[in-house]
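Workshop exercise sheet. Pairs work together: one partner reads the sequence aloud, the other fills in the structure field after running the prediction. Swap roles for the next sheet.
Pair: D.N. / O.F.
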Amino acid sequence: MLRLSSPLKLRTRIMLLVCTVIALVLLVVHTIFVTQSTALTKNSLEEKARAVARTLAETPFVGAAINDPQQQQALQRYIESVRKHNELLYITVMDMNAIRHTHPDPKMIGQRFKGGDEVKALHGQESITEAMGSLGYSVRVITPFYYQGQQVGAIAAGLSTEKVEATISANLLLAYLALLFGGVVGAVGAFYLAHKIKSMMFGMEPSEIASLLEQRSAILHSIREGVIAVNTQSEITLINDEAKRLLRLNGSFNELLQGQGSKNWPKILHLQEVLQTGNAQYDEELSFNGLDLLSSSVPVRVNGQIAGAVVSFRDKTEVHQLVQRLSGISNYAEALRMQAHEFMNKLHVILGMVNIRAFDQLEHYIMGIAEQYHYDVGALMRQIKDPVIAGFLLGKINHAREEGITLTVTEDSYLPESSQLDQLHVLVTILGNLLENAIDALTGVPEPAITLALDYEEGSLFAVVKDNGKGIPDDVLPHIFERGFSTKGTERGLGLYLVKQSLAQFENSSIVCRNNPERGTSFIVTLPYMAKESES
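Structure field:
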């Protein structure tokens, strides 16, 4: 199959376009210059001859000498001197009968002037003609001259047409050199311009840029984060569909682009500060027109100068839901790890007792494990009807036991199976973080113990997590729910913050901390909980 040739590159197109325009301009300029230069050169030479002829016509010596035979040689010398000085082909002084009295060739003196164009001058009218004379083809000016008020003859000043053409040719040579120079400069300029434009476009062709813009647009409108870009005047230059969706939730999008809202929203979204300082801001929490957003704002720099800013944001509620799910999965995995670890330890004990053939002791050991398992699991399953929470708590009990801590679920605790998966994830997040904090708080405490109480009543769940640790210092207590605050080092301080944020999703939910340095710490949680058995 034949392949169609690829279209011209942008650089080639620019060079061809610029070179064509320059060539046309130079051609027009050249045509005008040649036309004007030829005419001006010819007129200039004619004016020179006319000026010489008129000057001689006004010279009294010429009028007096033409009728004085004794002055003929002096007149010839004078006229030849003027002719040579002005580089003319000839200057002929003739009387009223057209008889030459001067001529570059002395043999022609006394003979009649040839050409026929002298008649007009002998009748008092100046003439400019091109005619063949005794010295060849020439451009000549014939001017009448007077002596004592009467015309006594005419003066003819001639220029060789070859000299006129030589002068014009010299001017044309300059024109051709200028044309060549302009063409070379234009070609170099076109190449530089094309290279500069191509470098500004990062070496890409227009089709590649169009494809890149389409891809960028598709990416921006497909991501699950709102994106807004502004210029240095805080005017929107780009906004994707998700940003429109988020900002339209409360009918705020129309106010965003017009009215008083257009002056305030860049400041609220931190874009104004980013434009002024040039410092990026990441993971900032803000409230905008009733929306809780998690945003990141960064400046856009072009050649080291701030040319605008971009903010990306998403609904904080969605982020918290994702964090909760990840936290729940992490807790599930931790529970499975603990159970697998405990199971492997027991298998090693059983294997050792088999190797030493202590079968009677092995039987008692296995029976004890089974009774303990049935006691723990059976009691837990009777109280905790939801299998996810039951498995989760069983893992936490085993984890606490490995740490030397007794984790007990009160006998009167009761939790029905949940009808909503989101509530289940939230509960796992809340209990997981509270129990982990309690385990951490019991490090180094004698006879450490944790008590968990769950009480369900008509769509509400009350949970109490209590430990017998040293309590929380009074100066720390007001800050325990702040993000990133921790007394255990860096990269901590998210547990209680997540608990607080999880509860904020539900109405009529709360968490209370009761702190007693002698009795430990208690966290009391209240949240809505829909049970399957309560659904109509």
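Discussion prompt: The longest helix spans residues 10-57. What would you look at next?
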